[in-house]
Specification:
Layout: E1 4-15, E2 20-28, E3 31-36, E4 43-49, E5 54-57, E6 59-64, H1 77-86, E7 89-94, H2 105-112, E8 122-125, E9 127-128, H3 137-143, E10 148-151, H4 164-177, E11 181-184, H5 188-199, H6 206-212, H7 215-232, E12 236-238, H8 244-255, E13 260-264, H9 266-270, H10 276-279, H11 292-304, E14 309-310, H12 319-322, H13 339-348, H14 354-369, E15 385-395, E16 414-424, E17 427-431, E18 434-435
Parallel strand pairs: 1-4, 1-5, 6-7, 7-8, 9-10, 10-11, 11-12, 12-13, 13-14
Antiparallel strand pairs: 1-2, 2-3, 5-15, 15-16, 16-17, 17-18
Helix pairs in contact: 5-6, 7-8
Amino acid sequence: MCWLVDLVIRNAKVVDAHFSGMVDIAIEGGDIGALLSPGTACTAAQELDAQGCIVMPGLIDAHVHLREPGLTHKETIATGTAAAVCGGVTTVLDMPNTAPPVSSPQILKEKGKLVAGQAWADVGFYALLGPGMVHQLAALVEVGCVGFKLFLGPTTGSLPAPDWGELYEAFQILADLGVPVVVHAEDRAWVECGQAQVSNRGVFDYQSFLIQRPKLGEVSATQQICLLAGATGAPIHIAHVTSAEAVEVIGRAKSYGWSVTAETSPMYLFLSDEDYAAVGTAMKVLPPVRGRTDQAALWAALRNGIIDMIATDHAPHTPADKDQDLANAAAGAPGVETLLPLLLDAGRQGRCTLADITRWCAYEPARRFGFPNKGRIQPGGRADLVIIDTNEVWTIDQSQLHSKSCVTPFHGRRGVGKARYAILAGNIVMADGDLVGRPRGNWVKPTQGGRASHAR
């Protein structure tokens, strides 16, 4: 019997990666105290009736750019995490290419101080893996980074990668520490080759963009980094996979038992190169959105476990940054607020199940990045939850998004299924699209020994 708790969610039809059923959820001290038979006597300071809805673990977006510090005209911790919880995302992992980039323990500590009182969701931070940083890796892990970001190709911030010899040394250290390296896998040399080819075309259309950022560059970088992981035992995570060929490389690496995981993005799952004529530069991202064959391969790779998770690469820019010709428009788009509704609608169309969504967007990110108390609905776990109306009809209106960046390639898209409530550590922080109360997010750090190896 349950006596006195902070919050009880009645009539909760729970779906997570490993359990589904109708329960009452008793929450105390920010954690799930018990999963009770519906109607169990329980006194609570607050009750919420989830009748007719689905309750899932709060989503974890393992790839966002909150732009703070230094780039707050594009986004802030406050606005980015507000967008997150309004989309049912209760934890975000923030990339290091801010100003300054997160390249030292002190910079990481200073960035962490920005969370309290501003963040609506929990926030974890990556550190940069750049030249000359080998001696700082252990100290950054000690401070609490969730992993290291390696930019093999040119992207926002122009942060070069170490040479291969230095990377080999760094990967050996990170293999011992058990901390994943998240890789932007585009080979700089192939990108430069593509740029040279494009300069001779005389026109810059979407085909030019695809030539400029060729598949070969993604495949080459993915293969090289997987080989390095195999040679050292370091855990790696391939970000924003776009191509069928890269999927093949990742599948082979996993078959060898290497500690390799991967993510793709809604951009690549719901758009193709054929959409550019209608969508325009709002869909310019790096690596680029490719063809329908690649899109089909990504969905198949999610279903068979070659790609482990979906993350948005939420990368906001100002409307002025995006409202330029294709060659000069900034690359990146917001995504954290539209992730869940897009996937719920895909589920309604039969492309995935609710359990798939919780696996890709909660359970697997929690496992890889060291949060064993998140990503599941189970006694003792953190009470980060999203309550979903699977029948709510929506139209994405970029003017209503909570991010500073209102330029989404999904503007005007219609679908069914949306978050009604977001709960962070037992506190309702979003109800029916509106923020509730005050920002309660914390700087979250991985649990030592809590990371999954993903070796097969």
